Amino acid sequence: MYKEQIAAATAHFAQILEQQLKRVERMKQEDTFIDFQELPRIVIGIVGGDGIGPYIAAQTQRILEQLLANEIRAGKVELRTIDGLTIENRIAHMESIPKAVLEELRQCHVVLKGPTTTPDQSADMPNIESANVSMRREFDLFANIRPVRVPELNIDWMFFRENTEGEYVLGSQGFDVTPDLAVDFKVTTTQGSERIIRAAFEYAKKHGKKRVTVVTKANVVKTTDGKFLSIAKQIAAEYPEITCDDWYIDIMTAKLIDPSRRSDFEVLVMPNLYGDILTDEAAQIQGGVGTAGSANIGTKYAMFEAIHGSAPRMVAEGRAQYADPSSLIKAAVMMLEHIGYNEQGEQLQMALDICSQFERKVKLTGRSDGATNEAYTDYILATLENPQLADVYQRYLAEAVSKTDLA
Ligand code: IPM
Ligand code: MG
User: Fold this and answer.
1) H or E stretch including 270?
2) Is 98's pLDDT higher than 70?
3) Please, is 70 exposed, middle or buried when counting C-beta atoms within 10 Å of its C-beta (0-12, 13-18, 19+)?
4) Considering only CA atoms, which of 95, 100, 139 is closest in space to residue 116?
5) Confidence check: pLDDT of 406 > 70
6) I need a labelling partner for 402 at 20 to 30 A (CA). Which of 8, 58, 90, 331 fits?
């Protein structure tokens, strides 16, 4: 029965295995992390992307121009605009990242990227891979790091999402064996798991965190998630000062909204798709996906982005200028810290917290009854200029903490 179809599927599968085994070999040769302090000049690529992307990217760029004014003037930092990573151009080339754009991206040390539209096959769009997924793979950006903080609720989470494997790595290479049978793949490797889990533990150690939580569905997805979990347990044994607990993804989604438990979680590490889902949920608790930033880190390159999509509905309804730029600004904070501009990163984080969590003088609603993203960015820029920024921030933080103490 179906001999031909099975033979074709088997051949396709063999190709996939070859490709993945080569990837494993490449990972075995992994080099050490680039040292940005040693570079005479850091090139930051700025990619607008699709939909609301160019709007929020332009605002984030204004902030970087102010914060890094001296470095830009001295030629130590260059902000370089990269066009062409748009859905129209990608469809015209039938490439998830057109070659010329990829080349330009390669010339940058780090990239700040607005959201890009992901073609959905069921919506009659061509089968082009998500630009995010391609970029993460092309530049081997294996760690997707997503912080979520709500001081008033005593929430301070750091998510480490594996970024190059799982259901994503072969997301565009599943196939219909027959018109009735569709197959996709999930891939987990030893090297891929080790590097993200180790990154989470190293982060915990460096920042004095007491707990690392591993999230899988190893009771059902036994081989791949089972591997991830058992590697996590091995690595945890090297960090006796850190407690390692493991949860299944379903109950984890419940615990994130359990007020009596959620603030116990500190650093969380998980395979790709669970990280995708869980970080949207976490971001919603913080105030919406529009408020959460994300770092995609590899040993050589890094890309920083919002965690949300391009919001085509907002653009179609003429509301793009009201889109919240906070997510990309948050990503810029992470970028500044990654490239060694810690002081500027900290200042921007404080200004963002004051504007979005504490003071809230300018409110965004995503509609014309709220502020534009330009007005909101003006507010952040003005907050940054306050010489008392750190004191103001500490005062608000102390107030917030005392509220949680009373709660
Ligand atoms: C994210 C996004 C992407 C993902 C999409 C756009 C492919 O949802 O960064 O979380 O699923 O990783
Ligand atoms: Mg997502």
Assistant:
1) strand 267-270
2) yes
3) exposed
4) 95
5) no
6) 331
From residue 316, give the alpha-carbon distance in Å to each of 52, 290, 306, 312, 321.
10, 18, 20, 6, 12
Residue owning the nearest CA to atom 12 of ligand 1: 276
Q: Ligand 1 pocket, 134 CB below 6 A?
A: no
Ligand 1 centroid – CA 304 distance (Å):
13
End-to-end CA distance of the chain: 66
Nearest protein CA to atom 1 of ligand 1, as residue: 307
**Can you name the CATH fold of 33-141+299-407?**
Isopropylmalate Dehydrogenase (3.40.718)
Q: Is the CB of 135 under 6 A from ligand 1?
A: no
Neighbour order of strands in the sheet with 42-47:
77-82, 42-47, 110-113, 302-306, 293-297, 143-150, 155-162, 267-270, 211-216, 243-248
Q: Find out whether the beta carbon of 307 lies less than 6 Å from any atom of ligand 1.
A: yes
Any atom of ligand 1 within 6 Å of the Cβ of 276? yes
pLDDT of residue 126: 79
Ranges of each domain in the chain: 33-141+299-407
What is the residue with the minimal CA distance to atom 4 of ligand 1? Answer: 276
Q: At what angle do helices 53-67 and 373-385 cross, to 10 degrees?
A: 20
pLDDT, residue 376, reads 98
Please tell me the distance from the alpha carbon of residue 345 to that of residue 193, in angstroms, as a whole number. Answer: 29
Burial level of 79, CB count in 10 A (0-12/13-18/19+)? middle
Q: What gap in Å lies between CA 147 and CA 249, rounded to an integer?
A: 18
Alpha carbons 364 and 371: distance in angstroms, whole number: 5
- For residue 296, give the 3-state DSSP assignment: strand
Which of 6-20, 31-45, 211-225, 367-381 shows the lowest per-residue confidence on average (mean pLDDT)?
31-45
Per-residue pLDDT averaged across 132-136, rounded?
A: 92
The reported pLDDT for the residue numbered 213 is 98
Q: Report residue 360 CA to chain centroid gap.
A: 25
How confident is the model at residue 121, as a pLDDT? 67
- Residue 186 amino acid letter: K
| Prediction pTM value | 0.92
CA of 172 to the centre of ligand 1 (A): 14
